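F.,

This is the one I mentioned.
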């Protein structure tokens, strides 16, 4: 009888162990299945995020490759929206450097802009341009007639806006004076900044 009870007790323990083992195995399988389903869902989530991020990207505006590109991008309609002061600046560029390369035109424009900010000259472009004995094309506080339909004027106007907004660095940045190169180096008391084609620039 004692032997029978002992065997029954062992059988009960073994059965309990099997139930426990089966339960653990089931839990492991469930956990494994849950992990597998999570892994299977992950790629689609990754694709979703990738698509969202690519849709959210907005291409950055391309910077102009050259001053010529910047001038070409300047709307011709700007002529009708231009202030008197910008017209004075464009007029000086037109008469002083209209036949020069664009960099030379910009340098002349920047001289006038720099003067208005220097504290040594009038504070408006018209004031600088019409200051007595500064620009030879000015006669009796007037400019000669401008061919406003010409490409030369459109370029001068575009350069005036660019110089005013400081949207392109001039090769003669910081200059306050310039003269025709044919006159030689006439200002020994000033610092020569650059020569661009037919003009020499100083500060």
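My design for it:
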């Amino acid at each position: 009888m004692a032997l029978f009870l002992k065997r029954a007790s062992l059988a009960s323990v073994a059965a309990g162990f099997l139930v426990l083992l089966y339960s653990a195995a089931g839990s492991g399988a469930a956990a494994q299945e849950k992990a597998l389903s999570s892994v299977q869902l992950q790629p689609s989530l990754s694709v979703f995020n990738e698509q969202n991020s690519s849709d959210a990207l907005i291409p950055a505006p391309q910077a102009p490759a050259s001053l010529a590109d910047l001038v070409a991008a300047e709307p011709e309609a700007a002529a009708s929206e231009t202030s008197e002061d910008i017209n004075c600046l464009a007029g000086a560029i037109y008469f002083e450097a209209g036949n020069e390369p664009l960099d030379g035109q910009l340098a002349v424009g920047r001289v006038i802009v720099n003067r208005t900010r220097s504290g040594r000259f009038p504070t408006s472009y018209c004031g600088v341009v019409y200051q007595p004995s500064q620009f030879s094309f000015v006669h009796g506080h007037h400019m000669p007639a401008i061919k406003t339909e010409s490409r030369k004027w459109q370029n001068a106007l575009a350069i005036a806006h660019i110089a005013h907004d400081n949207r392109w660095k001039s090769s003669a940045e910081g200059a306050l004076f310039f003269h025709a190169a044919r006159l030689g180096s006439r200002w020994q008391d000033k610092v020569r900044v650059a020569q661009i084609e037919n003009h020499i620039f100083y500060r």
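The chain has two domains: 1-58, 67-202.

Talk soon.
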